[in-house]
Amino acid sequence: MSKPRILVQLDTDTQASVFDSVVAIDAGVAHLLRYADVRPSNVRERVHGAIFTRGADDLRHTALFVGGSDVAAGEDVLTEILRSFLGPLRTSVMIDSAGANTTAAAAVLAAARHINLDGAIALVLAATGPVGQRVVRLLARHGATVRAGSRSQDRARAVCEAVAQRVEGARVSAHETRDDEQTAATLQGVQVVFAAGAAGVELLSGATRSGAANLKVAIDLNAVPPLGIAGLQVTDKAVERDGVICYGAIGVGGTKMKIHRAAVQALFENNHCVLDAEEIFEIGQKI
Fold it and tell me: What is the fold of 6-95?
């Protein structure tokens, strides 16, 4: 008799995410165990509780999910989880802190529907944020030349250096995009632009966007007015505006949700997968 699917939700916030819990249930999890305020110092006992209660052959029916609003904290927890496994006594694990991995995967997949990423020139505005960093990483891994934009060129440079360490041959460069003039200069020759900034912050004005002669796709991941890219609508999904294919946050969100559910389901295919940005992107490609 097959064991029921158990997902252990490990959240770094003081309250476990209701959003992540609902998605897990909709993905077919039979039992959801939710833990909040999870840190590297207290996650090992939870991991051992998951791996010591079922035999190695049944551990594919147990999985771990790392969430919370702090991506760096989630990555630290993931590192400790992987250290806590004992040979074949392990489970599959997924990290999607702040929804960064599933959102970035959905955004890059949206762009890939309209342009060939390999060889494309892309600009990621607010590239230093959790979603922006992963968009840069995924684009670089798929052959794009990526311009990482930020109000701080030093912070953008740090993102580029981190991506270069993970992606062999990555073509990434750091750019300061503090004002319209700097952003317009960085947009020259760009085919696809992503706005991945904080809620309610406009990163690309309508005039600057209209002046980008080579722009083919614009993707804004901010759902709170004012939007990150002026002139777009939050519900845009492959809507053409001034000759540019546009996506808003809700337009990308449907794909993000499908990817999230599919990734949770993929956790139970075996007991040894680790789903980070790249693996989640590959799941999205199959949808």
Answer: Rossmann fold (3.40.50)
- The secondary structure element, H or E, covering residue 81 is helix 71-84
Each residue's pLDDT tens digit, 230-281: 999 999 999 999 999 999 999 999 999 999 999 999 999 999 999 999 999 9
Strands, sheet with 237-241, edge to edge from the N-terminal-most edge strand: 171-176, 145-150, 121-125, 192-195, 217-220, 244-247, 237-241
Which CATH number is correct for 103-252, 3.40.50.720, 3.40.50.300, 3.40.1710.10, 3.30.70.2190?
A: 3.40.50.720
CA trace torsion 6, 261, 64, 142 (10° rounding): 150
What CA–CA distance (Å, rounded) separates 49 from 29?
18
- Residue ranges of alpha helices (H) inside 125-205 are 130-141, 153-166, 180-187
Strand order in the sheet with 31-35: 31-35, 6-11, 62-67, 92-95, 274-275
pTM above 0.85, yes or no: yes
Residue keyed to tokens 């309250």: 15
What is the Cα–Cα distance from 145 to 165, expressed in whole angstroms? 16
